[in-house]
Amino acid sequence: MATSNDIRKGLCIEYSNDIYKVIEFLHVKPGKGPAFVRTKLKSVTNGKVIDNTFSAGHKIEEVKVITRKYQYLYDDENGFHFMNNDDFSQLYLNKEMIENSNLMKAGEEVTIILKEADETPLSAELPQSVYLEVVEADPGVKGNTATNALKNAIVETGARVMVPLFIEPGDKIKVSTEDGSYLERVKE
């Protein structure tokens, strides 16, 4: 049994008969009144995000988790199929369990968080950034460079990314998996 002082990003807790992962937290110690922890929790079962405030010293039920690397194989209409590279066992995840899943390409290595007690998958985390090839890009408008102008581009996974005007089809770009934003062009 942990307390609200042990809350940190990535911690999985049992709350309201569901398992939640802490996305954001802030320890607040006001000048008047008791301290508290303001959190943003994401349900690992349905992806719903809620805000919650825990008072200082509040007891929370921590869920023990393990992480393993899996290779993304393919997807179907319901979810995604992964393979453990150590024992070649396969795992299936629902689409709601993965954020920005449109940035995953076949063969990508993903970290899957499993509940330690019965090894049920809770969520999956993509790497910080991925390298993708631009397959289609809007033409850049000449003279539109006074500010950091962006245009639409579609990458090899089908995801839409806003990129600078100089990016053309065939270019490889680095994309952040956290928010799906363009980071840089990759030199080959």
UniProtKB/TrEMBL annotation:
The keyword Secreted does not apply. Keywords: Cytoplasm, Elongation factor, Protein biosynthesis. It is found in: Cytoplasm. Residues 130-185 form the Elongation factor P C-terminal domain. InterPro entries: Elong-fact-P_C, NA-bd_OB-fold, Rib_uL2_dom2, Transl_elong_fac_P/YeiP, Transl_elong_KOW-like, Transl_elong_P/YeiP_cen, Transl_elong_P/YeiP_CS, Transl_elongation_fac_P. One of its GO terms (cellular component) is cytosol. It comes from the Bacteria. The keyword Hydrolase does not apply. PROSITE patterns: EFP. Pathway: Protein biosynthesis; polypeptide chain elongation. GO terms for molecular function: translation elongation factor activity. It holds the Pfam family EFP. SUPFAM superfamilies: Nucleic acid-binding proteins (SSF50249), Translation proteins SH3-like domain (SSF50104). Residues 67-122 form the Translation elongation factor P/YeiP central domain. One of its GO terms (biological process) is peptide biosynthetic process. Involved in peptide bond synthesis. Stimulates efficient translation and peptide-bond synthesis on native or reconstituted 70S ribosomes in vitro. Probably functions indirectly by altering the affinity of the ribosome for aminoacyl-tRNA, thus increasing their reactivity as acceptors for peptidyl transferase. Belongs to the elongation factor P family. PANTHER family: ELONGATION FACTOR P, ELONGATION FACTOR P (EF-P) FAMILY PROTEIN. NCBIfam families: efp (TIGR00038), PRK00529.1 (NF001810). This is Elongation factor P. The gene is efp.
